[in-house]
């Protein structure tokens, strides 16, 4: 008996049941449950062949096909997509179908499918363009005879003609026909067709001018289907050997094969070139192995050099290297280990090996050995500046300083290292070492401007003006137009004159300033010098032309409020606090301060307040700023935007005019109520730039501000808020707070060091430490002691660097080299 | 372009100040910065990495450069006279076109979301 089809046996479905089924199918499709949707729509279509259900079923098939493709099941995806096509004969997603076919390697089938769409205007333009380019590449990869049929749309006919022309030109190129034979064929390829890239590539390959070739090839987008062919053509361009090899190394395997062929692949050496490049890409071990095997057939020196350069990556190949090429020096071996450790960012090992290598080179005693040791120590200093794991001598000395010092011991004639060390001493506040080294540098490099400038700075910092002047003269003998030195000398002599004035010796101050005039160049008159000469002239009644000189200086300084502010500032720095300005300054200030501050004037004054000597004399600047407060206050009515106001705010903060800042903020908020930064400045003003003084509501406002989109996108604005929160502002209050914090942190660290040391000394005798030293050596003893210290109750909270520092001090104390304290 | 400064300038590892400077100036004359700024920058950087004895020493000691390998590879290049109009096959061209088609399709898959259900 025949088995009955269970589906045929199903009873007729009611209208309600259909509705329920349709709802379930739509829900399944919406939730991407394509398999279920396919089954449900099939059932629905059996009941009634509705077009919307047919479309929904096609959509479910496409969805299912994409899900299969995402799992790498391209064949299955293609079959499922075929079901969608069967519904009405239309391919729903031609590019997706093409993708499935290409991924299966079915280039011929993909081409056959793609050709159906050429000249089809039903596709949207971007899809049609991509499809046309892909079809062009597919056709040239696997050419088939192409002929337009009668009635084909003109676009299809043109495409076929361009395709045949491109195929003919490419065939002529691969058949090694001459340029004169190929050029007419290229001319038949329309430049704006999908085959335009082929035209450019062949032209680029035929031209003898590499610049023109690059320009032509550059016209083919690297992400187009012709991109790899363009890159291969570029790799085949003539050039310096190193350049050609570099291009070949970056090329893909197919590109390299093309380029090497084009460059004369039949030469006997080219297979080796391809093998070398391939091995280089595979990894250092493969390349090392190839090179050692082929050592006899390649230039010996370069084979050795290439193998040697691979050793840092494969240090375990050192024995094989030595067997093949002979013994390596100890210095070379340690250098290889150091480079290898550095590549792996194993900083501790890198430091140990670099130090050992430097010792080996230094012990060589030759000039080159010393220079090499210097190079390595400077490299260690550079690493120590970046990597905290580089610890130097494990003493309290900054490892950067320690290594720069060692570098100079080996190579004292290298000026950049001397300057770097001077800079480091200055940054670390190690004034004694700075001055000694600066003087030494001036002696060792008497004709180097940079060294002499450092000597001037050092002498000036010690207030040794005569010595500084001596260095400046020496410098100007070497470099007569050195503006920095001239400017510095004038500043120094002005400072000295101020000192004389405070000692009630205007005659000496006048003499000092007259001699300062010798540093001035006729084409670069100095405003401060003019102003100070005038001030001494006026106060000491020494110069009948003083007032004219003062006005000249003010004009040189920009005139108006800026010029008179500068003059008043110089006057305040010259005379004891709270004394009145000289008459012309007082009168002119009164006049200019009646006006309203303009932004460029406020900016210029901000710049003036940032100058080093002004910053050093906060008292003089502060009192004057207070006077300028009312003038600035009038500018609150100027409609400055927040962006314009930031630099004004910096000036106001530097002058600590918090009330003025508050008034600007209130006025700004009135104009722009939604601008966060006005509220920010209001808070800064009220808290006097100290975040610790914020109220809860202000903290909430700042938090909200930092989260707001406008501030998140404004990097500089956000860093302004962060600087305030970190208490790292630019004004004196912030700096004081930062210094206090630093001092507290330092005190805490030293306290921890001392307490650790004390607790250890209570439990271990110097004899015990000496025994440890004898049995384990210095490094071993440090490690063992650090380990023991870490087990103490206090040691648990200390980082390993601190433990090693304490361990080192314990050893020095046990040896009697240092008292047991920090 | 190679990364090894000696190969970039085309000088031997033992070249001295004068030779390096001479070669650098010749390259600058051949590829002036106003016409080939990128090339000039590369030559300039290579020159600056080598123009003093200490810099050369640092380059030798601190960077495992590929100068020797580059020279080996360059020595395997066909002679300049053979480097024009060498032969390429239709198969090589086809391989490059298939590479381009595959890459273009992969990019399309990524941007169109074809790799998964919409």
Name the CATH class of the largest domain in chain B: Mainly Alpha
Uncertain stretches of 5 or more adjacent residues of chain A: 1-10
CATH superfamily of the largest domain in chain B: DnaJ domain
How would a textbook summarize the main sheet of chain B? none
Radius of gyration of chain A: 41 Å
Architecture of the largest domain in chain B in CATH? Orthogonal Bundle
The helicity of chain B comes to: 55-70%
- Please, how many helices of chain A? 44
The proportion of strand residues of chain A reads under 5%
Q: What characteristic shape of chain B results from the CA principal axes?
A: elongated
Largest interface comes to: A-B, 95 and 63 residues
**How can the largest sheet of chain A be summarized?**
none
The CATH topology of the largest domain in chain B turns out to be Helix Hairpins
Report the principal-axis shape of chain A.
extended
Beta-strand level of the residues of chain B, as a percent range? under 5%
* pLDDT averaged over residues of chain B: 81
**Count of the separate structural domains of chain B:** 2
Oligomeric organization of the protein chains: heterodimer
Q: What is the succession of H and E elements of chain B?
A: HHHHHH
Number of strands of chain B: 0
Main features:
heterodimer, A: 822 residues, mainly alpha, Serine Threonine Protein Phosphatase 5, Tetratricopeptide repeat, 44 helices, disordered N terminus, B: mainly alpha, Helix Hairpins, 2 domains, 6 helices, 0% strand
Topology:
The complex is a heterodimer of chains A (822) and B (118).
Chain A: H1 15-30, H2 34-47, H3 51-70, H4 74-88, H5 94-103, H6 107-115, H7 125-141, H8 154-174, H9 179-187, H10 196-206, H11 210-218, H12 227-235, H13 241-250, H14 253-262, H15 270-282, H16 284-293, H17 300-310, H18 318-325, H19 330-343, H20 347-363, H21 367-386, H22 399-410, H23 415-428, H24 431-444, H25 449-461, H26 465-478, H27 483-502, H28 506-516, H29 527-539, H30 546-556, H31 560-574, H32 583-592, H33 599-609, H34 612-616, H35 618-634, H36 642-654, H37 658-671, H38 676-686, H39 696-707, H40 709-713, H41 715-726, H42 732-763, H43 766-791, H44 800-814
Chain B: H1 5-9, H2 17-30, H3 37-50, H4 53-62, H5 67-75, H6 90-112
Helix pairs in contact in B: 2-3
């Amino acid at each position: 008996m025949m088995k009955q089809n269970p589906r045929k046996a199903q009873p007729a479905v009611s209208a309600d049941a259909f509705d329920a089924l349709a709802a379930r199918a739509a829900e399944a499709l919406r939730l991407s449950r394509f398999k279920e949707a396919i089954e449900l729509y099939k059932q629905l279509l059996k009941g009634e062949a509705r077009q919307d259900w047919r479309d929904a079923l096609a959509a479910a098939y496409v969805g299912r096909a994409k899900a299969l493709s995402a799992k790498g099941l391209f064949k299955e995806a293609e079959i499922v997509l075929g079901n969608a096509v069967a519904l009405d004969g239309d391919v729903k997603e031609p590019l997706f179908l093409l993708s499935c076919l290409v991924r299966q390697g079915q280039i011929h089938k993909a081409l056959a499918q793609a050709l159906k769409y050429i000249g089809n205007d039903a596709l949207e333009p971007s899809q049609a363009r991509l499809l046309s380019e892909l079809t062009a590449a597919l056709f040239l990869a696997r050419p088939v005879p192409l002929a337009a049929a009668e009635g084909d749309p003109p676009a299809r006919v043109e495409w076929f003609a361009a395709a045949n022309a491109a195929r003919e030109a490419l065939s002529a190129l691969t058949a090694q026909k001459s340029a004169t034979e190929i050029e007419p064929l290229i001319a038949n390829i329309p430049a704006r067709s999908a085959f335009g890239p082929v035209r450019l590539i062949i032209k680029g390959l035929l031209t003898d001018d590499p610049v023109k070739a690059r320009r032509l090839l550059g016209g083919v987008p690297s992400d187009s289907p012709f991109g790899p062919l363009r890159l291969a053509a570029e790799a085949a361009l003539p050039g310096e050997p190193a350049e050609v090899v570099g291009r070949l190394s970056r090329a893909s395997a197919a590109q390299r094969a093309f380029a090497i062929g084009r460059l004369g692949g039949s030469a006997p050496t080219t297979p080796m070139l391809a093998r070398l490049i391939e091995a280089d890409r595979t990894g250092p071990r493969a390349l090392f192995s190839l090179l050692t095997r082929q050592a006899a057939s390649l230039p010996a020196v370069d084979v050795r050099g290439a193998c040697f350069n691979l050793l840092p990556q494969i240090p375990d190949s050192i024995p094989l290297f030595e067997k093949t090429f002979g013994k390596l020096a100890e210095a070379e071996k340690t250098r290889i280990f150091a480079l290898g450790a550095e590549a792996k960012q194993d900083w501790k090992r890198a430091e140990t090996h670099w130090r050992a290598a430097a010792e080996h080179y230094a012990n060589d005693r030759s000039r080159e050995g010393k220079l090499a040791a210097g190079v390595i120590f400077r490299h260690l200093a550079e690493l120590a500046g970046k990597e905290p794991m580089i610890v130097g001598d494990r003493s309290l000395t900054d490892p950067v300083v320690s290594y720069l010092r060692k570098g100079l011991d080996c190579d004292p004639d290298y000026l950049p290292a001397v300057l770097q060390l001077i800079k480091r001493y200055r940054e670390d506040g190690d004034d004694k070492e700075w001055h000694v080294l600066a003087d030494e540098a001036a002696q060792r490099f008497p004709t180097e401007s940079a060294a002499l400038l450092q000597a001037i700075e050092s002498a000036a910092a010690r207030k040794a003006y005569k010595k500084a002047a001596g260095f400046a003269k020496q410098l100007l003998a070497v470099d007569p137009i050195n503006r920095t030195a001239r400017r510095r000398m004038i500043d120094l002599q002005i400072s000295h004159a101020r000192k004389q004035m405070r000692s009630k010796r205007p005659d000496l101050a006048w003499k000092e300033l007259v001699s300062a005039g010798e540093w001035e160049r006729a084409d670069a008159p100095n405003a401060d010098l003019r102003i100070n000469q005038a001030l001494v002239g006026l106060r000491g009644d020494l110069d009948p032309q003083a007032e004219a000189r003062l006005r000249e200086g003010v004009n040189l300084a920009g005139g108006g409020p800026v010029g008179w502010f500068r003059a008043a500032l110089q006057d305040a720095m010259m005379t004891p606090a709270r004394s009145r300005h000289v008459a012309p300054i007082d009168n002119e200030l009164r006049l200019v301060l009646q006006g309203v501050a303009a932004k460029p004037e406020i900016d210029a004054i901000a710049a003036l307040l940032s100058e080093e000597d002004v910053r050093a004399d906060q008292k003089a600047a502060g009192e004057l700023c207070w006077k300028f407060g009312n003038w600035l206050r009038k500018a609150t009515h100027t409609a400055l935007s927040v962006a314009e106001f930031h630099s004004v705010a910096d000036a106001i903060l530097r002058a600590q005019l918090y009330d003025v800042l508050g008034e600007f903020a209130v006025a700004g908020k009135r104009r722009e109520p939604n601008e966060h930064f006005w509220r920010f400045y209001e808070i800064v003003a009220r808290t006097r730039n100290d975040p610790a003084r914020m109220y809860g509501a202000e903290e909430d406002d700042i938090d909200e501000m930092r989260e707001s989109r406008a501030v998140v996108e404004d990097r500089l604005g956000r860093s302004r808020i962060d600087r305030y929160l970190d208490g790292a502002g630019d004004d004196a209050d912030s700096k004081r707070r930062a210094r206090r914090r630093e001092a507290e942190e330092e005190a805490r660290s030293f306290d921890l060091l001392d307490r650790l040391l004390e607790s250890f000394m209570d439990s271990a005798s110097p004899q015990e430490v000496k025994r440890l030293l004898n049995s384990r050596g210095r490094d071993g003893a440090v490690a063992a002691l650090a380990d023991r210290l870490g087990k103490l109750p206090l040691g648990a909270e200390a980082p390993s660097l601190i433990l090693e520092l304490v361990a080192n001090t314990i050893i020095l104390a046990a040896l009697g080299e240092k008292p047991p304290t920090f | 372009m190679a990364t090894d400064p000696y190969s970039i300038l085309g000088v031997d590892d033992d070249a001295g100040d004068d030779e390096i400077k001479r070669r650098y100036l010749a390259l600058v004359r051949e590829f002036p910065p106003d016409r080939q700024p990128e090339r000039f920058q590369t030559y300039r950087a290579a020159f600056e990495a080598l123009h003093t004895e200490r810099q050369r020493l640092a380059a030798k000691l601190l960077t495992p450069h590929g100068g020797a390998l580059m020279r080996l590879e360059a020595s395997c290049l066909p002679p300049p006279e053979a480097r024009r109009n060498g032969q390429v096959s239709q198969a090589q061209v086809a391989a490059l076109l298939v590479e381009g088609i595959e890459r273009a399709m992969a990019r399309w898959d990524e941007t169109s979301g074809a790799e998964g259900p919409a």
